[in-house]
């Protein structure tokens, strides 16, 4: 696959979000706020590092099991590869793969 072409004819290769490192993510939500495609969501994590489930914005403490929150990629197919999430992440905990590399993996 060659690079995509923008409206002005510039070549561009999308970098799709494929994963977020839960050990590094601080759950700040900046990436979620800039993503218009609902690619990731905030999830609760227990003391053992197990993901408890999506946080719905209420004061959900998962019956006292909640230790911290992280972002989890749960709709990777919705990513358009704009890179906005990577630009706002203070921990650089995201993995992005170029469209041509991702196509080769599938």
TrEMBL record:
A Pfam match = Fer4_7
Q: Which UniProt keywords apply?
A: Iron, Iron-sulfur, Metal-binding, Nitrogen fixation
Look up keyword Metal-binding and say if it applies. Answer: yes
The terms under GO molecular function for this entry are:
iron-sulfur cluster binding; metal ion binding
Leader sequence residues: none
UniProt-listed SUPFAM superfamilies: alpha-helical ferredoxin
Enumerate the InterPro entries for this protein.
4Fe4S_Fe-S-bd, 4Fe4S_Fe_S_CS, FdIII_4_nif
Segments forming domain 4Fe-4S ferredoxin-type: 16-45, 69-99
> Membrane-spanning regions, if any?
none
What positions belong to coiled-coil segments? none
In Swiss-Prot or TrEMBL terms, this protein is called Ferredoxin III
The source organism is Neomesorhizobium albiziae
């Amino acid at each position: 696959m060659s690079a995509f072409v923008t409206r002005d004819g510039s070549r561009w290769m999308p970098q799709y979000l494929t994963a977020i490192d839960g050990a590094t993510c601080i759950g700040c939500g900046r990436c979620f706020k800039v993503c218009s495609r609902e690619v990731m969501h905030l999830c609760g994590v227990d003391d053992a590092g197990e993901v408890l489930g999506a946080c719905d914005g209420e004061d959900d403490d998962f019956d006292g099991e909640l230790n911290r929150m992280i972002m989890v990629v749960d709709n990777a197919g919705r990513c358009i590869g704009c890179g906005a999430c990577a630009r706002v992440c203070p921990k650089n905990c995201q993995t992005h793969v170029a469209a041509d590399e991702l196509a080769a993996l599938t």
